[in-house]
Write a structure and sequence with these properties.
Number of domains: 2
Oligomer: single chain
Mean pLDDT: 92
Number of strands: 10
Largest sheet: 6 strands, mixed
Radius of gyration: 18 Å
CATH topology of the largest domain: Rossmann fold
Number of helices: 9
Length: 240
């Protein structure tokens, strides 16, 4: 099956420091691909390259065989590749309702008549936010802010949803709720690229795992190959 999203021989740098080295990755449609690795391995940098916030030095990024590299982050998001960033990326001084309205206005191919319907649809996924529409986003709990960030991304009707450490700083009960939603999105056929610190959640969701080490692909395979006692997990993920 042809890849929906594909990186070929990607090299990227922060200034003079090269951080991704000849990285290639294939994301099949309808799959969940987990990017795993220790801190500094290049996971967030890979998402930044895909989303256009970090330019390539060499290589290409393609969505449905069309080049994304060289386009602006806005154009890439409008094409259907949407990122829930580490740190959530909400507007803390706006209330929940206005955060959603801003995201709905920016969504690709959505008329004004459909905006409210789309907003109501994402609130069905996270009903807790419907109770807080008038509340300033910055005053929400950490879990509620992450829910809002995911709602904003879903309003873009993504072809590929990228999520960077959505569990960071959250209580286990909230993390369970968030990943229950990720499971629902997977079951609905959404293509997902997942960076996640909790290996258990990542392996539960993923169809394919890429393990990064020092900006290079160290392993590609199925989640079952990274279970307890795995030499790869022990070497690159600090388990075992």
């Amino acid at each position: 099956m042809p890849a929906l999203l594909e990186l070929e021989h990607v090299t990227a740098a922060y200034g003079k420091v090269e951080v991704l080295h000849d990285l290639s990755m294939s994301v099949p449609p309808g799959s969940v691909v987990a990017l795993l690795g220790s801190n500094g391995a290049g996971k967030t940098t890979t998402l930044r390259v895909i989303s256009g916030t970090l330019p390539l030095r060499r290589g290409s990024v393609r969505l449905e065989r069309a080049r994304l590299d060289g386009r602006s982050p806005y154009e890439i998001a409008r094409s259907g590749v949407v990122l829930v960033p580490e740190g959530r990326g909400i507007f803390p001084l706006l209330n929940v309702r206005d955060n959603l309205k801003v995201a709905a206005r920016a969504a690709r191919g959505i008329s004004s008549n459909l905006r409210q319907e789309r907003i109501q649809g994402v609130l069905t996924t996270f009903p807790r936010l419907e109770e807080r529409l008038s509340q300033r986003a910055g005053s929400l709990s950490g879990g509620e802010q992450q829910m809002l960030a995911m709602c904003r991304a879903l309003l873009a009707d993504p072809k590929v949803l990228m999520m960077d450490e959505i569990s960071m700083g959250l209580a286990p009960m909230i993390v369970d709720q968030l990943f229950e939603t990720v499971g629902q999105l997977k079951a609905a056929g959404l293509t997902i690229v997942l960076v996640e610190q909790y290996l258990t959640y990542a392996l539960r969701m993923a169809d394919v795992c890429y393990v990064l080490s020092k900006g290079k692909i160290a392993f590609v395979g199925e989640p079952s190959e990274l279970g307890a006692g795995s030499a790869v997990a022990s070497a690159y993920l600090g388990t075992g």
